[in-house]
Amino acid sequence: MSRTDHIQNGEWSDDFSYDYYRQLIDTLETRFDLRTLSAYPEYRSNSSRAAFVRHDVDVCLEEALELAYFEHELGVSTTYMVFPRSPLYDLEAQRDILLEIQALGHEIGLHCDLGIRTTRDRAERPASSEGGLGPAERATIEESRSRLEALGVGPVESLSFHRPAEQLLGGPPAISGMINAYSSELLSAYISDSGGRWREGPPIDSVRAVSDADSFQLLTHPVWWGHEHVQPIDRLDAVAEKFDVTNEGVYDELVAIYPSLATRLEHPQLS
Ligand SMILES: [Zn+2]
Questions:
Q1: How many angstroms does the Cα of residue 44 sit away from the middle of ligand 1?
Q2: Same structural domain for residues 171 and 57?
Q3: Among 35, 56, 83, 133, which residue's Cβ finds the most Cβ atoms within 10 Å?
Q4: Per-residue DSSP letter, 103
C-alpha cells in the first residue's frame, strides 16, 4: 500500500468518471472518517481513523469548482491545493472561484513549486534542518502563502508541493506552520492519480486493501475527472486548446503534467 509497492505493473486509468469517484469516496467512508488536511492535528490527538482527500489544482480552477460541487452533493469536505505561481491560471483574476470552493465547505491549501528538479539543484541548495528546505525555498513558500491569503481565504493551514523533488518526500509534519501533505506520516498510506494514472491499480481496490492504516491520503487532480470518463491524454488535449501553447512556460507546464501531450501539440492533426 505504500507509494513504492506495486509500481511496476497494473497502472490503471480506466475510469475517471464522477460515478467512479463517488464509489471511491463511499469506499473510503466505510473505513475512515473523512477530514480536511488542517484537521490532521485534531485527528492525531483523538486517535480516530481518518482519510484526507486532497486535490492539487495544476491546470484550471473551473474543473476544481465542478468537482467541489460534486463533492458537496456527496456531503464531503476536502482540501483544494491551489498554486499562486501557476503559469496556467491566475488566482487573483479568479478569486471568486476560490471563494466559491471554500463556501462549499472545502479547505483551500497552498500548492507550491520550489523548482527543485535535479541532483544539481539539490547540491546547489543545501538542506537545512526542517524538511530539506533552505532560506530560498522558505521565502518562496512564505511569498506564495501571502499571495493566497491576500485573496481573503483566511489563514492557509496546509501545504503540498508541485512535482516534489525526492528530498521533499517524507518530510516533517508541518512546514512554516502548515500541515505538510508530504510528511512521512501522511505518505504512509497514500495513492494518487498523478500523470493520469493510478500506479497501484484501481484506487477502490487500494482502499479496500488497506487493513491497519490509521490514516490514508488520497490525491487527485481535478483535470482528469468529469461526468463521463475520458482518457487523460484526450482530456488534457481538449483543455490545452484554451491555452496559448506558443508560450513556453505554458507549454512546458502542460507537457510536464503529461509528457506525451508534446506529440499532440506539435502534430495537432494526430489528435
Ligand atoms: Zn501539482
A1: 26
A2: yes
A3: 56
A4: H
CATH assignment of the domain containing 34: 3.20.20.370
In this predicted structure, the answer to whether residue 104 has a pLDDT above a threshold of 90 is yes
Q: Residues 180-212: pLDDT tens digits? A: 999 999 999 999 999 999 999 999 999 999 878
Report the separation in Å between the CA atom of 56 and the middle of ligand 1, taken as the mean of its atom positions: 5
Q: Which of 73, 64, 57 is nearest to 97 (CA)?
A: 64
- The pLDDT-based confidence of 118 (bands split at 50, 70, 90) is low
**Cα separation, 157 vs 165, whole angstroms:** 22
Residue 146 alpha carbon to ligand 1 centre in Å: 19
* Ligand 1 centroid from CA 46, angstroms: 31
Domain check: are 213 and 136 in the same one?
Answer: yes
Based on the domain organization, do 119 and 243 belong to the same domain? no
7 lies in some domain? no
Q: Are residues 86 and 177 in the same domain?
A: yes
Q: Residue 20: exposed, middle, or buried by beta-carbon count in 10 A (0-12, 13-18, 19+)?
A: middle
Reference 54, options 146, 170, 182, 167; nearest CA is: 182
The per-residue pLDDT for range 55-76, each reduced to its tens digit, is: 999 999 999 999 999 999 999 9
CA of 95 to the centre of ligand 1 (A): 19
Kindly state the average pLDDT of the residues 207-221.
92
Per the structure, the complete domain to which residue 250 belongs is given by 232-271
Distance in Å, CA 214 to ligand 1 centroid: 25
- The Å distance, Cα 265 to ligand 1 centre, comes to 21
For ligand 1, the distance from its centroid to the CA atom of residue 144, given in whole angstroms, is 14
pLDDT at 7 over 50: no
